[in-house]
Structure formats: structure tokens, C-alpha cells
Amino acid sequence: MNTFNKADQAVADFLGSIGILYNPVYVGNFDHNTEWKHDLFSVSFNDKVKPLIITEFMTGIGYRDQRSKFSMSFVTKLKNSINNNYCLNCVNSGAPKSFQRYVAAPTSASVLYSLLSDASCVEYGFLDFCDNLGYSNDSIKALDMFKACEVTARDLKKAFTSEQLETLNELLQGY
Question: Is the pTM here over 0.85, yes or no?
């Protein structure tokens, strides 16, 4: 994740142009999770008055590195894109400095790409959702996942106009 591409910048610029602030907050690391070790962020998209979307976002531990390995241009662009001075978060601050690892906050583009992808899964209904993703249509777990994707789609439609969602989809095409 030590890169910051054109789509990241384009989405950050677009959000700024429509008055939406992106705020990722590092929650912690879950190295003890045997199923999937990850870092957890609470992210929000806010207008000047209130939060529009608040969600969790996880990144795998492959995004961690030593602080010195993150290029300064990446850190500068990331800080500018999220209006946040704490874009690198130490995941093991108690370790000796040479063993400390940091994770960069996810970009607004990566979070929106994930949310838009989840939202698009419910476009054609539950049966197509199951067929397209390889789930049994007789599964409670699949139904719960479908409902979660429906909530994501509903939240996106509340936070953004249809034109804004179309622009975000265009900016994130091929992301």
C-alpha cells in the first residue's frame, strides 16, 4: 500500500469538491485472530454537519511496513487526501523501534471501491447474488451477507446523489 495512484487522488479531489470529508480512524490490530490477521479502521464520510456513512474497514497485515519504508511523497499525499496527520499507525508500539511496524490508513478510493462493489452485488436480487458469488440460496449466512450489502447500497444512496455515485464509479473503474 506504499503507493498512491491517480484514482486515489481523483476520488479525494472529487470528495473535496462536493464538501465531503473522509476520516479513517485506526482501531487496532487483530493478530490474534487465527482466521485472518488484520488491522481495523473505523471510517466515516462526513458533510459539514454530520456523518453520512460510518463503517469498518479492514486491511491485511501485508500492508504493514517499517516507518522508514513508506516514501515521503506517499505519506504527504495520504495526509492531504484524508486531512489527517495520523495516516501511519503503529501496530506494535511496545516493540523495540527496529521491530515496530506501521500501517497506512486506507484511502477514500479503496474504501469507496469496496462499498460500491458490495452495493452492486444486490442489484439483481438474492438469487443472482448467490449465483454470482457461489453461495447456496438456502443459506442463512448468504442471506445475512445479502442484507448487509443492501444496507451498504441504501447508505450510499443516502450519502450521495445518483450523479455523484455515477462519478465515483467512473473514477474507480479499473481500480
Answer: yes
Residue 1 lies in a domain: no
Domain tally, the chain:
1
97-100, long-range: CB within 8 Å, 24+ apart, which pairs? Answer: 98/66, 100/66, 100/67
Q: Is 61 within the bounds of a domain?
A: yes
Cell of 155: 447508505
pLDDT value of residue 2: 63
Q: Computed from CA positions of residues 113, 118, 119, 123, in that sequence, does the dihedral angle turn out positive or negative?
A: positive
Task: Profile the chain (175 residues) by mean pLDDT over runs of 10 residues.
Answer: 82 95 92 85 93 94 86 85 80 88 93 96 92 92 95 96 97 94
DSSP annotation of 85 reads S
CA distances in angstroms from 36 to 30, 59, 60, listed in the order given: 8, 10, 8
Contact 24, 18 (CB under 8 A): no
Structural domain includes residue 154: yes
What's the domain range around 57? 6-171
Residue 33 falls inside a structural domain: yes
Look at strands 38-46 and 51-60 and give their pairing: antiparallel
Of the chain, the end-to-end C-alpha distance in Å amounts to: 13
